[in-house]
Amino acid sequence: MNFLHNFIPNPVLVQIGPITVHWYGLIIAAALISGVFVAANLAKQKNKILDDVFDLALWLAIAGIIGARLYDVLVVDWGYFSRHFIEIFFIWQGGLAIHGAIIGGLIALIIWSRKRKQEIWIWLDIVSVVLPLSQAIGRWGNYFNQELFGRPTDWPWGIPIAENLRPAIYQSYQYFHPAFLYESILNFVLFLILMIAYQKQRLQSGQLSGLYLIGYGIIRFIMEFIRIDPTGMLFGIRIPQLVSIAAIIIGLTILIIRPKFNK
Length: 263
What we know:
Blueprint: H1 2-6, E1 12-16, E2 19-22, H2 23-45, H3 50-76, H4 78-81, H5 98-116, H6 120-144, E3 159-160, E4 175-176, H7 179-200, H8 207-223, E5 233-234, E6 237-238, H9 239-261
Antiparallel strand pairs: 1-2, 3-4, 5-6
């Protein structure tokens, strides 16, 4: 914690001539690889072949990144991107919204399952278990980009933010809540809960996806009270909170309804 309190990260890992490697991209790649590795082990327990895991992972990675970027551009900060259109493609600078990734990934999973004649609920459960692990890792990319930090704080684990990255109304503050760290820890706890539930095999297929939606919906709803990054508002409420409420409702519906379809 003392290290985080006194260290301002450099978003660039290494630069060799015209080639620049950003921490953000490296961490997102690590998050995806970790997710695929765990998914392969979970799929094996359901007698699924590795080729299907890798094939689906490619679909989800592409659709997730596209969905995450579109959500960030259209919902979070359209005012900026409408004036800097070319920067829509600069994903290494950050700006991948997890809600958009979930929506994009879900669409891809539905299409893939029908195309491959696979049972969608089994794969939804597998993806739902590994997703919070990937999120927990991926949040550290936000740290190196110095984005998605919380309100100013004098707590000993507050992180310093460079002056040019602080919102105008907080220019006189140096330390801010490490919102990325809070969400990373909570996502990892959610991953452990879902992993235990998966191993116990007491839930009907599909119910783990409901648990994920409820769990992450609650996490994100709470985190929005801490975060100060710009986002769309509706009825005076941050849109990610409204989306999180919708996720919780959908998750509860899945938990209640799925067992009835398996009788």
